[in-house]
Amino acid sequence: MEIPSKYNALSVEKKWYNYWMAHNFFHSTPDEREPYTIVIPPPNVTGVLHMGHMLNNTIQDVLIRRARLLGKNACWVPGTDHASIATEAKVVAKLKAEGIDKNDLSREEFLKHAWQWTEEYGGVILEQLKKLGCSCDWDRTKFTMDDDMSEAVIKVFVDLYNKGLIYRGYRMVNWDPEAKTTLSDEEVEYIEKQGKLYYLNYKIEGADESLTIATTRPETILGDTAICINPEDPRHQNLKGKKAIVPICNRVIPIIEDDYVDVEFGTGCLKVTPAHDENDKVLGDKHNLEVIDIFNDDATLNSYGLHYEGQDRFVVRKGIVKELETLGHIAKIEDYNNRVGISERTKAIIEPRLSDQWFLKMKDLAKPALDAVLKNGDVKLFPKKFENTYRHWMENIRDWNISRQLLWGQQIPAYYYGDGKEDFVVAETIEEALELARKKAADPQLNISDLTRDADALDTWFSSWLWPISVFDGIRNPENEDIKYYYPTNDLVTGPDILFFWVARMIIAGYEYKGERPFENVYLTGLVRDKQRRKMSKQLGNSPDALKLIEEYGADGVRVGLLLSSAAGNDLMFDEALCQQGKQFANKIWNAFRLVKGWDVDVSLEQPNSSKIALEWFESKFQKTIAEIEDHFGKYRLSDALMATYKLIWDDFASWLLEIIKPAYQNPIDKTTYNEVIRLFENNLKILHPFMPFLTEEIWQFIEERSPKDALIISTWPVSKPVDKQLISEFDFASEVISGIRNIRKQKSIAFKDAVDFSVVNNEEVNPTFDEVISKLGNLKSFRYVSEAVEGALTYRVKSNEYFIPMEGNIDVEAEIKKLTDELNYTEGFLKSVQKKLSNERFVNNAPEQVVASEKKKEADALAKIETIKASLDSLN
Questions:
Q1: Which of 82, 125, 511, 604 has the smallest number of CB atoms closer than 10 Å to its CB?
Q2: 345 to each of 27, 89, 181, 183, 506, how far by Cα in Å?
């Protein structure tokens, strides 16, 4: 086969991905080998490939490809998450564009649209992952809304309810007014927001006096049902037992006393709005206060909003402040930094709201998962620093609000049969529900038509927390072959931002439903940021198009670019130049391959000693690097593993070894050396393959014609051999000697084609192992060991060894004398000007200390340079 002069990444990548797929290399079935399993963090079905996905999935692919080469039965399960909030929002927007209101549709009609949308647009990201080279077992692709996956979710809900761990409660929840659903605490992000603190005057009923409260949310006064003071606050003793009048709505409310009130904050008078603040709700329950909810589900005001009914809460805020000013109720307004909760999905500001929801008790469930990470080390987090964050969350865990006011998702399997609060049953099917309802209601006449299923769907995370079990059907069929073979999985690669949403909950589910950990290691990647350290986002426009990067630099180039800068747990400062570096690395390897394959082989030639020793050195260097790489993999330092591989191939193999063994121009190479360098090249391809799968497979298949069973992807990791540390050390020394010769040739314009004599005073007693290598790479005419310095020679040192190249015949002595004399004159003139400045007392006494120090350094440098030039001139005269 003719080797193309240039490496064409796009055509190569398409060719080999199709080849791997055609030969089913990614597919895994249980056998006698040791399994190695990864489950993909399922991207949203609405998603498209972004830089975070690129990093996360590149790391997973590196791990899975290496496992294959190590002879393990590697299984990487792909899939997507139904992403209730995000997907429903997309479907609603599509319907709106078609003039259809979601509220006009039945559940079945809406779900039909949702499935159509999912089939048309969903799963695009999985196709995009193929372009990156991801070697997932596509035959095992799962979707969290697949029938079997949904069945598992419902089964778990019923089981946890029957264990008394799931309950329905009327509680203060986080309400997303854009998605119109409740959220769990973990789905709320907190941001600092510049706002205002409003000081409002409330009149005291039946008196000509008033009190002042401070609030950041003046619109909520319409829901006030009390004013609270601290009973010990001396400022407000006169208010005890009285009532206040809420401005605008003129509702008369009691003034209550509770030591909950912080006397240091605001005025010491607290407005109590039990429907719109969690702490106010606690106070309201304690003091039996009325609860007035002033908001609709989209955070517009309801009828309690009086003339503001139907207006958005933030529009009302402006209007109500204006009205309060007109009525004389505003004492003052101050700037105030407020910590505001926003929806992790829609970014809408969260509204605290009282609502009937389903909750899962977490405290007891969390204990085995806490111990697994922090006590017995069954699950290890990389980097370890995240253990403290994990501990904090798990030790302070709250009950999980698992119900969502959405249609897209698994519908809660609770069935209502009466008007009472407890008139419901929980069952996997409506038929089972009917039997339970007849027993509970003691009414055998109940029919299926009497049952109404709960309209809410389950939180998306309630399906994905089962992911490592449910992808192997381990909930419905706990003894099936797949779950017994592949579970627990080995490594999980994900971002620290979902350590609680997903990772901790999967560990909890693992112990609850399998009695063991779901995975052994959790590799937490950093976030991808731009060069200005900003998080990449569509809003900022600083996130490059992932697919365009692959087009520009090739998938291998992008993979290298991402991994070179991504230490575990540390944020990646992405710079496109890193992808260019990856592309250049691919080109370097391609050109090295073309060089080797371009040599003619002569079977009659003997192997030069320089080639023999160089090959022995590289084998040891390779083995030393393999040990380093395996250590890095063991600690999940993938960027270090890649850098070690990069240096081995670029520096040691391409820049040193090939240079040493390269035959003279148009001369052939001996067969022994050629065969050995091909073997070493193949070993390099094996360790590089997890990082650069396409390039390595292309070269592997070019080296010789191979059958599918000999493809690189299913080859074997190189066998470990002893390392000759002495040989490596001797070469390191020899490489410095060679660099010295090259520097002198460059500085003195001695053409490389001109052989030179070479002498050494071997004070270090270095072995002559690499003398022939030094001679070849330095183009030496002779190599002599001498006992003293050689006169009239150019010289340099490596440690205490002195090396000499005679000037006679190698340089134009007269031209060199002129050059050095000119340099000496210039430096002496420069020295005079510096010394003149330093002899000026006024300058020395008045100039800043660092300026004087800088001039003194210039003087010292010039004196040293003059001494060196004079020594060189002496040797020439």
A1: 604
A2: 34, 10, 11, 10, 21
Whether residue 344 is found in the same domain as residue 328: yes
C-alpha 18/C-alpha 268 separation (Å) is 71
pLDDT tens string 250-308: 999 999 999 899 888 778 999 999 999 989 999 999 999 999 999 999 999 999 999 99
Do 325 and 237 share a domain, yes or no?
yes
Task: List alpha helices for 311-449, DSSP H.
Answer: 313-326, 363-374, 386-395, 430-441
Q: Domain limits at 805?
A: 727-811
Strands 452-453 and 669-670 turn out to be unpaired
Domain count, the chain: 4
Same domain, 588 and 680: yes
Q: In this predicted model, what pLDDT tens digit does every residue of 585-616 receive, in sequence order?
A: 999 999 999 999 999 999 999 999 999 999 99
Q: Considering the chain, what percentage of its residues have pLDDT values greater than 90?
A: 78
pLDDT of residue 868: 75
Domain boundary among 351, 371, 402: 351
What would the DSSP string read from start to end of 562-602? Answer: HHTT--TTSPEE--HHHHHHHHHHHHHHHHHHHHHHTS-EE
Domain assignment present for residue 169? The answer is no
Above 90 in pLDDT, residue 76?
Answer: yes
- The 8-class DSSP code of residue 217 comes to -
- What span, in angstroms and rounded, lies between the C-alpha atoms of 326 and 309? 20
Which one, of 866, 854, 871, lies nearest residue 830 by Cα? Answer: 866
Measure the CA–CA gap between 41 and 136, rounded to whole angstroms: 12
Helix (H) or strand (E) holding 825: helix 813-838
This prediction has a pTM of 0.86
Q: Write the burial class of residue 823 (CB in 10 Å: 0-12 exposed, 13-18 middle, 19+ buried).
A: middle
534: which 2 tokens?
């900003």
